[in-house]
Amino acid sequence: MSGYKKKLRAGIREHQWWHVIELAPGVITPGQADHRRLLPYLDIPADLSGKTVLDIGCWDGYFSFACEERGAEKVVASDVWEYAGRGAFDFARKTLGSEIEPLQASVYDLDPDIHGRFDLVLFLGVLYHLRHPLLALEKVASVTVPGGTVIIDTVIDVKHLSGPPLMKFYPGSEENSDPTNWWAPNPAAVTAMCKTAGLSKVTSRVQLYGGNRGIFHAVKASDKHVAKLAKKDHDARHCWQAKK
């Protein structure tokens, strides 16, 4: 083993890893989640030249680095890094010589006037962890350029794969013994929430993998369409309240 790889492995042991990331040939982080097989199913464009990317809930940054490797002009990796800190991400970023921009922010903090808008937004493994999923999707849509794509990976309700929009609520640790898992929407609910948030075209790319997860692509509507949706919603609710 070369001195560099020995030093690299020692550095890896200083951090807690969620993602499996190859930092050098044959040197791989001991992450809990190996998404190398999942990556092709997300259907991220092979060529992201000239595109801007936002990876929400990036953790160690595996998908952010994958987008940078595909030639993205700008990649922003956002997370709150509340559990293990940002050490693993920073170590990987430095080791890979990456120019990815870290952003310490919750999805609820995202603001197009502050953070800009992106051609591709990754929202992977986040939706079902949130107390306010519809608000989160509105924030995601707000930082996506019209015509841009949002890729969503989420736990879904496998008992209601067809039928009307439904979301299963987990008040405790019922889902995978994890108290941070709050929801399991069915595919119709994911589609309906996305459209309500201003994502006009939603397709289910992988309805089921890993037993209870799905992958969706959603296209951001035009600003005019989003404004029309907001006005329609406002008028309908105002009218309903006036009748009470």
Per-chain topology:
Blueprint: H1 3-12, E1 22-24, E2 27-28, H2 39-42, E3 52-56, H3 62-69, E4 74-79, H4 87-96, E5 101-104, H5 112-115, E6 118-124, H6 133-142, E7 144-155, E8 167-169, E9 183-185, H7 187-197, E10 199-209, E11 213-220, H8 223-243
Parallel strand pairs: 3-4, 3-6, 4-5, 6-7
Antiparallel strand pairs: 1-2, 7-11, 8-9, 10-11
Helix pairs in contact: 6-7
How would you describe this protein?
The chain has 244 residues and is of the alpha/beta class. The chain has a single domain (3-243), classed as Rossmann fold. It is 32% helix and 26% strand. The strands form three sheets. It has a seven-stranded mixed sheet with strand order 5-4-3-6-7-11-10, with helices on both faces. Strands 1-2 form a two-stranded antiparallel sheet.
Pick out its properties.
244 residues, two-stranded antiparallel sheet, alpha/beta, 8 helices, seven-stranded mixed sheet, Rossmann fold
CATH architectural type: 3-Layer(aba) Sandwich
Secondary-structure element order, N to C: HEEHEHEHEHEHEEEHEEH
Give the end-to-end Cα distance, rounded to a whole number of Å.
Answer: 75 Å
What is the count of distinct domains? 1
- CATH homologous superfamily title: Vaccinia Virus protein VP39
Residue windows where pLDDT falls under 50 for at least 5 positions: none
Going across the major beta sheet, what is the strand order? 5-4-3-6-7-11-10
CATH class, please? Answer: Alpha Beta
Beta-strand residue fraction: 25-35%
Main beta sheet, described?
Answer: 7 strands, mixed
- The helix-and-strand class reads alpha/beta
The third-level CATH topology is Rossmann fold
Number of helices: 8
Overall shape = globular
Q: Cα-atom Rg, whole angstroms?
A: 19 Å
The number of distinct β-strands equals: 11
Helix percent reads 25-40%
